[in-house]
Amino acid sequence: MAEDTQSTITYGIFNETTEHEARVALTPDIVKRLKRSSITCMVETGAGSAAGYADEDYAAAGARVSDAETIINRAQAFGFVDRPSGDLIDRLPKGSWVIGMLGSFTDEEYVNRLERNGLVGVAIERLPRQLSSAQSMDEMTSQNSVMGYKAVLKAADAYGSFFPMMTTAAGTIRPAKVLVLGAGIAGLQAIGTARRLGAVVTAYDVRPAAKNEVLSLGAKFLELGLDFSKGQGEGGYARQLTAEEQAAQQAAVDGKAAEFDVVITTAKVPGRKPPMLLTKAGVDGLHRGAVIVDCAASDLGGNVEGSQPNQTIVTDNGVRIIGAPDLASGVATTASNLLARNVADVLAHFVHDGSLVMDPNEELDDALIVAGRVNTPAAKEEEK
């Protein structure tokens, strides 16, 4: 197939499939979308297989399917589900653009490595999600929505009874009582999914605005008797609580959790250690057979004391703790479709007149890491 001579930007995607990752950062539909913006796509062989997208699908959409080395040598921008490994960073040509969740808030050495290699990073975790122009680029929102849905299915599968009330000849089975901690994008999706499965759902979030959102979905709001009236932070996230507030919240949640059969925690903080919402005391207070799904479990910690990423732990009192940070990968086809749109829209935003331009819109500067430096107004002042 002849290449489009009008295309001046080549966008490369690698196969990121691992034991816990089935998503891909580009889908055939997005290949067609980018072609209209004069962007040619290259995809590593087998990159979309685990998500249900065959190499033939990409080729039919106009992408070139090739090996990783050819993509490295020909592309000027690269999109990722997560972020490139250190080894891959060392192989990318100087001046290349790297777009993904780069972990720039906590991994200074990684940012420095981008600098040493002369790469331009676009850290999606830094996008100002409150801006209307950034909505379609917000990977965290799209993937957290998938995560919240899958978390409920994971919990329902592990729980030893029904979620809905069932009336049978042998008697009536009461509905499961589900507690969702964190009523952001993932939490609200979890509430809606659990409600559709017939569970009685209660939720809690430190942000005052969350109460009406929880009630609007037909769930109850967990009243802790605490006042975090300034719980709303920047960009729609909950602000970080003080040590005293965290201790009060933990104690209150621990005491209330014993009433529930299933607890789903969704309070992630982009690039930072997640807040502890349920301590060992709260876990120990749950009844035998109860299930906890900790969506925030990571190497930095989780929302639940004792949770471990990608592990299921059964406590001495028979409570199952599922550390599930990669739930979106379990819905790989839809999750990839959404993620590919997010990453592609980031790329397209910086393409102007056939070139990658670093500063087309100052409102999105915070997401740029230029020569390793986070491109914030403060950083610009230091450079003057």
List the keywords.
19 strands, disordered N terminus, 12 helices, Rossmann fold, 8-stranded mixed sheet, single chain, disordered C terminus, 384 residues, alpha/beta, 2 domains, 7-stranded mixed sheet, elongated
How does this structure look, described?
It catalyses: NAD(+) + NADPH + H(+)(in) = NADH + NADP(+) + H(+)(out). Pfam families: AlaDh_PNT_C, AlaDh_PNT_N. The transhydrogenation between NADH and NADP is coupled to respiration and ATP hydrolysis and functions as a proton pump across the membrane. Its EC number is 7.1.1.1. Belongs to the AlaDH/PNT family. By secondary structure, the protein is α/β, with parallel strands linked by helices. The protein has two domains: 182 residues, Rossmann fold (3-Layer(aba) Sandwich); 185 residues, NAD(P)-binding Rossmann-like Domain (Rossmann fold), CATH 3.40.50.720. Helix content is 32%, strand content 17%. It contains twelve helices and 19 strands. The strands form four sheets. Strands 3-2-1-4-5-6-18-19 form an eight-stranded mixed β-sheet, sandwiched between helices. It has a seven-stranded mixed β-sheet with strand order 11-10-9-12-13-15-14, covered by helices on one side. Helix 1 runs parallel beside helix 2, helix 6 runs parallel beside helix 7 and helix 6 packs antiparallel against helix 11. It is elongated, with a radius of gyration of 22 Å.
